[in-house]
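Internal tracking record. Fields below are filled automatically when a chain is submitted to the structure queue. Please do not edit lines marked as system-generated. If the sequence contains nonstandard residues, flag them in the REMARKS field before resubmitting.
Queue: standard
Priority: normal
Entity type: single polypeptide chain
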Amino acid sequence: MIHDVATVNGMYQNWFLDYASYVILERAVPAIEDGLKPVQRRILHAMKEMDDGRFNKVANVIGQTMQYHPHGDASIGDAMVNLGQKDLLIETQGNWGDIRTGDGAAAPRYIEARLSKFALDVVFNPDITEWQMSYDGRKREPTTLPVKFPLLLAQGVEGIAVGLSTKIMPHNFRELCKASIDVLRGREIQLFPDFPTGGLCDVTNYNGGLRGAKIRLRATIEKADKTMLVIRDIPYGTTTTALMESIVKASEANKIKIKKVVDNTAAEVEIQVHLPAGVSPDLTMDALYAFTDCEVSISPNTCVIIEDKPRFVGVEDMLKLSTQKTVRLLERELEIRQNELQEKWHSASLEKIFIENRIYRKIEECETWEDILQTIDAGLRKFVRIEGEKPKANDLRIVLRRAITEDDLTRLTEIRIKRISKFDGFKAEEYIQRLETELAEVADHLANLTRYAINYFEGLLKKYGAGRERKTQLRTFDVVTAQKVAVANQKLYVNYADGFVGYGLKKDEKAVEVTSCSDLDDIIAIRRDGTFTVSKIAEKTFVGKDILHVGVYNKNDDRLVYNMVYLDGASGISFAKRFLVTGITRDKVYDLTKGTKGTKTLYLTANPNSESEVVSIQLSDKAPARVKQFDFDFAELAIKGKGSMGNIVTKQPIKKIQRKSVGDSTLGGREVFFDSVVGRLNHAGHGRYLGAFDTEDTLLRVYKDGSYEVVPPELSLQFDMGNMVLLRKLEPDTVLSAVYYEGESKTHYVKRFSIETATLKKRFTFISETTGSKLLTATAHPEPQVEIKLQRDKKADKETEKLLLHEFIDVKGWKAMGNKLNYFKIHALTLLTDEGPEPERKAAKKKAGPATILRSTTTAAPEAEEPLPEHTGDVDISAADVAQAQAVLKTPKSQLKLF
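SYSTEM-GENERATED OUTPUT FOLLOWS
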């Protein structure tokens, strides 16, 4: 019994090792020699045997392949469809499915295939193929095919074996040919994937496809208008159906807001994502990347079989090995061709001598076969000598490259009389000369093998490279944080008395609303004892009593700075500190103080743009200090980590701390963007770039009714797009130029003025307030120009005139009327200059658009008896504006001309 158990154990170990080796070597992992798995190699071999130039039913090919592949027809059929969809080795006919939509191929009996011209040229050569017997010993099949191209890198492959897997990305055909040429020329190469589905790819961490590598793929999303996004390409490995399902799922989970998704995919991918009114397409685009299959990650793992062992090799090294293998195959083909040509030359030379010198007549009297062969041999030796044989004096004999064999003599006896009678010595000589020319050419190729291989790859590129340009665009993506783009579909409440936070406290009488949030946010809660925790948002969570501050926590926010003063319970000393909260573990309790008993927080503020503060500190009446009130400036403190102790403020007991003023940001201005679709400001890069704003910086917005307002860049502000003409950062030297129609005098005026008022959120009217007065256009460009369509007098024809406003009138006060435009009638007025160059940026420069958000276009002037029609501001950007912006972005800075 024990003996039997030992035997089973031994058999299991051997069998499992054999099984694992079989799966790795014979099923899952491709060979470096030809880049094919066994099933793929057997399919191609079967198709070559069947090849007659016509299409064959796939069912017939599967049946032929089953002679070599010891598995079912389903596995062979799936592998063949996979090969056919890669559009390289197999030319297809019929419905072979679509990798973009996920539609499967038709049944094998309905679809047809044949080898492509590329496969016939590159994959097969029976003279240099190594053969082995099939699994049943009845047929001969190739061990590997002599593929003279980096096929493995062109097609890509994926396989899972026992304890081992491989995932090699497909690469571009043209780039592989060019890279092979660079390898032969001794140049450095770098390869990146190219996928048949197109899309965008970030290869920052590709690392040659080795283990641990990672690539990020994105769909190509276009903004059709402010209510619709269009997906044009999808990430590799996904389908349009799966992509749409992921979008719907994210919408149902309230992660994104959409109205509907429509699939219009036909020859090209087109998935329309319709948005509700007031939803930002820019924010939705980022949310699609964060929450749906519009962005996927792939971890390549380039494992191949080299010398019957699995090896992990980078794609650049794999291409070098493939190129070297191709050179060896080309050399072997040349050597075979050289031997064939030499044999032809040898046979043609012997035949020419045999016929021209009538040696065939000397065998008529021979009685035996041996006599015939000897007679022919003796006759030939009078006219030939073997290479290496010492020549005689004045020897004119033809030099043969090898000795004459019995087979050569036998072949001469088989020449027919009809051929001898029609023999043409000149044609025979020409034929021999052509063979010698080709032999010299082959010898030159062998002597210059690298040059020959380069020409070979250049030939492949020219013959088969058309239409195989790169489909996937290489880009570098910013990481889209899910919390950053999640829809703020909840309200955060806090019950300071009982210590609860969450979005389910709406009905709690003691709870107050803090801010808007999403289901994915984390919440930070700082308590009076100086401790804090960060926890996942929930309906109701206990975070501890004596809460001082509650807010949404963003781990990537490096500008939210906390200013704090706390009393150390052990020493009685008060410390001040400025700190960031980074590198936290969720639900862990952190201490911002020294952690001694009796410690408490005296002052705490959260400053979203790292603003400093000046606070007034009043000491206790019992404090022995003579000066019991003084100011403390947080700007004098460096911003440190949450665990820093802080600086001593005073050793005396403090009675009260009050904010006296807010200082500038100590980290510099914060970049502000304006999303015209939702009419709100943001820091996330959505919409137009307005500039970097410090604490005291403000925005200027001009309204259609001829008024302006100065406002702080608060994210809570809502901008009415229908009434705004201009929105921009207010600089100290900003000059506003305006053309307006005065309703009482029915006259057009031009005025230029600086913004002199300092009252925030108060509107000031800078045109006449009489009935019928209307603003035609307003701009902050330093040198504005308008085009006016006018009549100079009643009898004059209409004409067009360009007017430089800065030359027409000087800068005056904002209450001044301005200068008249003394024309009989103005029919239309067009602003030719935009708002000027874009504000200088640093961190988000790639996302910048023009600084101006709105501008005036052609505006019809009023009739003498009628009021001016309402101004029409360009809220939406036209296709022409987009084209112009793209042209500007592509223009070198040295060639840019400011308007």
